[in-house]
Amino acid sequence: MPLVGGTDGFGAWGACDPAEPRNRRSRSSIIIEGPSGKRLLVDAGPDLRAQFLTHGVGRIDELLFTHAHADHVMGVDELRSVNRVLGTAIPAYGTAATLQDVARRFDYAFRPAAPPGFFRPALEAREVAPETVVTLAGLPVRLFRQDHQVMETLGLRIGGFAYSTDVIRLPEASMAQLEGLECWVVGCFQRGPHWVHADIATVTAWVERLRPRRTILTHMGPDMDWAWLRDNLPPGIEAGHDGLRITL
């Protein structure tokens, strides 16, 4: 938020109050840092450069794509600066279908690395699959299936933390992977039903079943005003915001 447009050209805010800084939201992405200090970036959306600069992120060690929609991959070009810091290609994980789609759009990013200048991003494709555990940023990451209506996306769990963006339905096997959570970050696009994203009622039903200690909403649309959510969400569910840090 905001969307491009608005009567004054400074954005279409929907129901969101422009004076509330937590309503200024960039495209969904997270960084997970393990005990060793290694960092995993989950998704690389078109706001990646501004996100890194705003929040003091100068380096990541690995990248995981949850799926290949534009708002999750179109920041790939900005990663060439990270290549210069690392001096090598960045391991990029995703399902076979996701990596194929990303490589179709950014074929040059998957060519052999060209240090030291890295005039283009350099990614090293590493295929993963749901229902498996992979080691990323030195942490065991369990991947599970999510239904995004138009495609399957990857959810991930690390210990008592899970991340589920771009989902409208969760298979029973995936629900089982989400039991006993301390913190769940989950996509919730709007107040009422949406055809490819979960809404508040859907997420609330999941939370009532799974009982995570803390649930944080992400990937929110123009009717998800931060103050309204603070005042109306059930206990244990809260709205996320850019720059939010979670320590587990």
TrEMBL record:
InterPro entries xrefs: Metallo-B-lactamas, RibonucZ/Hydroxyglut_hydro
Pfam families, from UniProt? Lactamase_B_2 (PF12706)
Q: SMART domains, alphabetically? A: Lactamase_B
- Span of domain Metallo-beta-lactamase: 26-219
Q: Which PANTHER family does this chain map to?
A: HYDROLASE C777.06C-RELATED, HYDROLASE C777.06C-RELATED-RELATED
What name is this protein filed under? Phosphoribosyl 1,2-cyclic phosphate phosphodiesterase
Organism equals Humitalea rosea
